[in-house]
Amino acid sequence: MPDQSHIRNFSIIAHIDHGKSTLADRILEMTKTVDQREMREQLLDSMDLERERGITIKSQAVRVYYTAKDGETYQLHLIDTPGHVDFTYEVSRSLAACEGALLVVDASQGVEAQTVANTYLAVDAGLELIPVLNKLDLPGAEPERVAGEVSELLGEDPDSILKISGKTGAGVDEVLEQLIAQVPPPAGDPDAPPRAMIFDSEFDQYRGVVAYIRVVDGTFKKGDAIRAMQAGTEADIDDIGFFTPAMTPVKELRVGEVGYLITGIKDVTLLRVGDTLTLKHHGATEPLPGYKDVKPMVFCGIFPVEGADYPDLRDALEKLTLNDAALAWEPETSDALGFGFRCGFLGLLHMDIVRERLEREYDLNLLATLPSVSFEVTLTNGEELVVHAPSHMPEPGVISEIREPMIKASILTPKEYVGTIMELCQSKRGTSTGMSYLSENRVQLQYDLPLAEIVLDFFDQLKSRTRGYASLDYEISGVQPSNLVKLDVLLAGDSVDALSMIVHKDKAYEIGRQLTEKLREKIPRQQYDVPIQAAIGSHIVARETVKAFRKDVTAKCYGGDISRKRKLLEKQKEGKKRMKQVGRVEVPQEAFLAVLEVGD
Ligand SMILES: Nc1nc2c(ncn2[C@@H]2O[C@H](COP(=O)(O)OP(=O)(O)OP(=O)(O)O)[C@@H](O)[C@H]2O)c(=O)[nH]1
Question: Which residues bind GTP (predicted)?
Answer without folding.
Answer: 17-22, 134-137
